[in-house]
Amino acid sequence: MNEKKSVARRNFLKYTSASLAAFTIVPRSVLGGKGYTAPSDQLTKGIIGVGGMGLGHFDYEGTKLLAVCDVDKNHLQRASDIAGPDVSTYSDFRELLARPDIDVVHIVTPPHWH
Ligand SMILES: NC(=O)c1ccc[n+]([C@@H]2O[C@H](COP(=O)([O-])OP(=O)(O)OC[C@H]3O[C@@H](n4cnc5c(N)ncnc54)[C@H](O)[C@@H]3O)[C@@H](O)[C@H]2O)c1
Question: Which residues neighbour 71 within 8 Å (Cβ) at sequence distance 6 or greater?
């Protein structure tokens, strides 16, 4: 009786794990490989001041832009349009600096604001 149960359990595990393996889609972040930068190898960043020069700091290799900040609404909107909806926007730099998930910040404001 006990042996029967154990065999049935073994079969159950065998078939369920086989079906799970067949239907699991392994994400790119797990597989890694050529041309893929793992999140642990990327610095997350924010940009404060997205006027002329600030727009040039979006795409450095090994970094991922998470947020932009500008006091000028038009500049902020333009930066948001370029960066896309996943990048947060702020008009107060203190809110951007308070984010614990941002590793580095580009400060691209006029010199008196550095
Ligand atoms: N323009 C150049 O060729 C050049 C070359 C090298 C270095 N720089 C330096 O780069 C910096 C930026 O120059 P730029 O030409 O991009 O100026 P810019 O005026 O085009 O851009 C500065 C941006 O900072 C924003 N800003 C101002 N105060 C702010 C604040 N408190 N919080 C958030 N945003 C704020 C402004 O609204 C503007 O969008 C300056 O320090 C400049 O000296 C400029």
Answer: 91
Is 14 buried (19+), middle (13-18) or exposed (0-12) by CB count in 10 A? exposed
Predicted TM-score (pTM) of the model is 0.78
24-78 tens-digit pLDDT:
666 666 666 777 778 788 999 999 999 999 999 999 899 999 999 999 999 999 9
Domain that holds residue 18: 2-29
User: 49: domain CATH number?
Assistant: 3.40.50.720
Which residue's CA is minimally distant from atom 25 of ligand 1?
49
CA of 63 to the centre of ligand 1 (A): 21
User: Which positions ≥6 away from 4 have C-beta within 8 Å?
Assistant: none
